[in-house]
Each structure stands twice: as C-alpha cells, then as structure tokens.
C-alpha cells in the first residue's frame, strides 16, 4: 500500500478519507462531495473530480461512464458574493 | 439585461471562428472570455502549427490568434474580455460578472466554446510547489516569461508533453527526462525527434512514483511499469529535479452544458464526458451549440472548423445566409473530415461519428476501423515509433528520402517525416514543386529528388522541423548538413561545434558554414555545418552552447 496522499488539494481531503466515504455508502461524486467536501473547493472539482472518479470506479466496480460529474450549480467560477446582491432579472 | 442574437462563450480558436462566421453572415454577435486576452490556448503556442494552408499551417499559434482577432474586429464582433460566465440558465440566458456586478445576457443562440482543462495525477508529493501542469508551465514561460524550473521531469509524451518540453529547452531549462506510462509515445514522432536530438531521453513504460522535497520539489522517483501499468519493484530511480510537469491529458470543460441540462456521452477517445451534438454542432437543447475542445479533445485546426460550422449553423437558424449555408457548411465538414484521417485522426473520427449517432438517438454500432477509407498506404506508416527516433533503414525506405545516386550528385532535401499526420506546409514551401502529399493531407510527403535543387526553403516551413539538407559534394572530405535550429544563442559562422546525431549524442566535430535567419524564415534559423563525410546520414543537429 502506497502511503496516503491528498486527493482534493483545495479542501485537503486525503485519499483514505475518500475511500472511507465510499465504504460508508457514497456511490457518486456528489455523495463523496457531501461527505468529505472533496470537490467543493475553489477550483470546483476541476482538479480532483477525475482522480476521485477513478477511485470510485475502483472501489465500487462501476464503469467510468456511470460516474457522472457532481451536479454543477451556478456559479461555476469563483465569484464575490457581493456581486450577486444586485442581480437584475 | 443585455440582448444579442448570438452569444459565444470562450474566445479560443473555436469561439473566435464561430463569432467571425456568424458576424460575417450578418448576425449580431457577442463574444465573451474570462481572460484579459482572447485567443484561448493559442496565445501560449509559440511553435509553428501543423495543418494545411486553409488552417494557417506553419504559422505560429500566437500569430494565428492575432489574425483571428483582427478578423473578428473587422467583421463587427462585440467582444467582452475578463468576463467569466458563471451560469447558463435554460438555453438562452447567460450569467456574467461585468463592471463588478452580476448581469445576464439573453441570446437567441448560444455557442459554448470553453475548451478543456488539464488532468491532474496524484502521487505522494504532488501538492509540493514545483509540481504543475504542462499548461501552467507554458503560461509561465510564454506569457509571463518566467522559467518554471532549471531541471524538469515531464510526465506524459503526448503532443503537449513533447511540445512543452521543447519550449522548456528553448527557454533555457533542462528537461531531465520525459516519461510515458504507455509502451510508446502518444504524440507525433517529429515533435519527439526535436527533443531527442537535443539530448532529452524519453522513457516509455515509466511513471512517477513520488516527488520529494521539504518546501518544494528537490527530486522525483520514477519507476518502470509492466503491461498492466503496475510498477515493477526494483526499477525505481531517483532523479534530481526541481520541477515536475504533468501532461497527462485534457478533459472537456463542459460545466455550462451540464448546468443547462444538455445530453452527454462518455467517450474516452474524446477525453471523457462530451455534450451530444448533431451535424450542425447543436446540442440536445435547441439553440445551444458547442465547438472545439469542449466537444472532444482535438487540435486548434479542428476547433476552428467546428467553430465555423457552429457559427454558420447558428446564423442560418436565425435566417441569415439562406441557400449559401448548405454549401458553406459542406465545405467545412469536408475539411473537418480530412483533418480526421490517418492513424491519429481515425480514432477521433469514429468517436465523433459515435457522438453524432448517439445524438440521433440511434447508438451507432461500433464498427471495426475502415482502413481502406482513411489510409491509402498504412503499411508505409507502420514504423516503429517508440520514442521518435527513426532508424536509417526506416528512413531509407521512406518516400521523402532521395536515392543514393541523387545524394551523390549534390545538395538535396532529406525529409524525415514518416507518420500520417495532418500536415502539408512543405508542399507549398517548395518553389519547384518537388514535394507532394496526395491524395489526402495525411499522406506522407513524397520527394521528387530530381526536381529538388537544394534551395532549402522547405526547412523553416516544416513545423515538425523534419527536413534537412545534405550535400555530399561539399568538399573532398566533408559533407554539408543543414538543419533548422530554434535556440539562442545562434552559433557563429566559422566556429567549431559539436555535431550530434538523432539522439543528441556528440558524434563528430563540425564547422559552422552558414547561419540563415531572414524574416521569411519566421524565426526558424537554418544552420549549415561541415562535418566528416562518414557522418552525412547521422548528424542532424549540434549541441546547444550553454544555456540561454
Ligand atoms: C501545449 C499545447 C500545444 C498545442 N499544439 C497544437 C498544434 O501544434 N496544433 C494544433 O492544431 N493544436 C495544438 N494544440 C491544441 C489547441 O491549442 C486546442 O485544441 C485549441 O486551443 C482548442 O480550442 P478551443 O477554442 O476549443 O479552446 P481554448 O483554446 O481552450 O479556448 C477556450 C476559452 O474559453 C474560455 N472559457 C472557458 N470557460 C469560460 C467561462 N465559463 N467563461 C468565460 N470564458 C471561459 C477559456 O478561458 C479560453 O480562453 C495545442 C495545445 C496545447 C496545450
Ligand atoms: S530544398 Fe528547395 S527545391 Fe528541394 S524540396 Fe526543399 S524547397 Fe524544394
Ligand atoms: S515534412 Fe511536411 S508533412 Fe512532415 S511535418 Fe514537415 S511540413 Fe509537415
Ligand atoms: S482540488 Fe478538489 S475542489 Fe479543487
């Protein structure tokens, strides 16, 4: 076993924590995300989602095609929340 | 709220081309990009591009970007830069940040051309400063003019890994090795050959095990892998490096498509999940189009063509162009098909067909590759490209090589390009019509050595830097070899240099006879050196003098 390593660098989530989340029942990227915060960081999962998808596939036996990206919600770019105060319709 | 007819998200080659076509057709077009400078990936590309005349072949990426910008301006495209699009609601409304405020843009048609993001690789130490993606290294060097490191390990030998390695050398860095997990390189042999003759080793069936260092990268351990990609114990090697560059693929950046809810397919050959689209680049959501790397990782040329197609189709759907649209779109599709020929393009062509098939709701049956259709003469390209260095036997059998008699009769071009890649600037560069590539752009260049007088004009035009001149008659004891050389400082005429072979080994001493660097060579100088006769087919460059 190779030593543990950080998988989501924005939220500093370890590979072991991701595996634990899957063992505890996470079956989707979204499930891993709400349990561990992996993918919730500044890059919105751009860096880590594929890495986590691979571990999900490994642990659950799903094919990569079954592992959909975690739900994308606006904003998909980091924005200052004060910008939103004046949203026009 | 801002209203336009067509909004294009992403001002890379795909978005720019889409905006230009649609605006020329008469539509009111708004082009948005989150960067301060338009051009997408193009502005980092200081090397000459492949492709045909129609695709600005042999023009540097950055110069292609500038030309597209001019065209966009002339055709009346409105451009908003430094504006991230952070939401897409339904198929008509974009959310943006402008003037420090959240605003919306409503468009009758929206074209997504957001490109791709680089894949990461995780290994112990990958979060250390000094580990970066190849694209980040490229941005540092070519935009900010900062060398990312002195000693670099490049992970991945696809075109991006090979090209960025070459650019690191040009910037004065040292590339300690390029490693590739597969058992052969994934990029073009001509790109690999450039760094091989500069002495960079390419280790196939190797991966990175760990990056070491306290505050930043100080070393990296690499390891050989077996056919199952499993590390082979005992093959670990520690390399002293200060930078690890990752060039391990791209993923289409389609978050806006997911948000809008269009249909997707998972196609590994295209880089993962890609939005489904039809022949007009329209997604499953009416009025929402896609073009470029977002619909599958390809190249700038195909991105531009897809952009044109999406631009034409969106304009047509708004009532512009009328009959003209059909023929214009057919022309673009034909050029796109020609870019997807040959062993490299074939896979993408099939993947794209599958995408179209799925979009029509009829999952196209996976057919075996139709070799007859795409490769006139596949056997010719079945060369053993493991790390990009061709053997003399392989070269001698290539259609770009002059015969022994012709070589003996005087100065002549020697073309070392033996893969079916979509490229043909050498053809147009020869004033005597001595080079032909037919019938398709992916066929191999054929040299009519009787027509060639050794003028050397094809050397700087070849983006693969794969053409050389050899003159066996230079003097009784010496041969003249000329080669393209894109490093500074340039050697001086009359000086003695170390002549290297295709793998960068010093094999002889040479004397610089000529250094040509006129404006029309577009910053690809050509160096001619005199070397002992017996090295005529061995020497292909010189050792770089110092750094910087
Ligand atoms: C090192 C390297 C070498 C290459 N060499 C070649 C070559 O020799 N020949 C060749 O043909 N191709 C080459 N390519 C490939 C080529 O650069 C790409 O295929 C091409 O740029 C894709 O074009 P695109 O318009 O789809 O995307 P991009 O060029 O990536 O442009 C997308 C743009 O959209 C913007 N964007 C994304 N999301 C948003 C958002 N939400 N809001 C606002 N803006 C957004 C991005 O910032 C970017 O500016 C190379 C690529 C690399 C990395
Ligand atoms: S050396 Fe001159 S004549 Fe010969 S192939 Fe090249 S361009 Fe043509
Ligand atoms: S020899 Fe011709 S086809 Fe080959 S890389 Fe050079 S320009 Fe392209
Ligand atoms: S690396 Fe996981 S959210 Fe950025």
Model description:
The complex is a heterodimer of chains A (89) and B (548). Chain A has 89 residues and is mainly α. Chain A has helices at residues 15-23, 29-36, 49-60, 81-84; strands at residues 6-8, 13-14. In chain A, strand 1 (6-8) and strand 2 form a beta hairpin. In chain A, helix 1 crosses helix 2 and helix 1 (15-23) crosses helix 3. The radius of gyration of chain A is 15 Å and the shape is globular. Chain B is an alpha/beta fold. Chain B has three domains: 2-117 and 251-359, FAD/NAD(P)-binding domain, CATH 3.50.50; 120-248, FAD/NAD(P)-binding domain; 392-542, no CATH class. In chain B, 26% of the residues lie in helices and 25% in strands. In chain B, strands 1, 2, 3, 4, 5, 6 and 19 form a seven-stranded mixed sheet that branches. In chain B, a hairpin with a 3-residue loop joins strand 4 (85-89) and strand 5. In chain B, helix 3 packs parallel to helix 4 (159-170). The longest helix of chain B has 18 residues, at 300-317. Chain B starts with a strand and ends in a 6-residue tail after the last strand. The relative contact order of chain B is 0.12. The chains are: A mainly alpha (89), B alpha/beta (548). Chain A binds chain B through residues 2-3, 5-7, 9, 15, 44, 46-48, 50-51, 64-65, 68-69, 71-77, 79, 83-84, 86-89, and chain B through 1, 34, 84-89, 95, 97, 100-104, 117, 119-127, 251, 253, 255-256, 258-259, 266, 268, 272-273. Bound molecules: flavin-adenine dinucleotide, iron/sulfur cluster (2 copies) and FE2/S2 (inorganic) cluster.
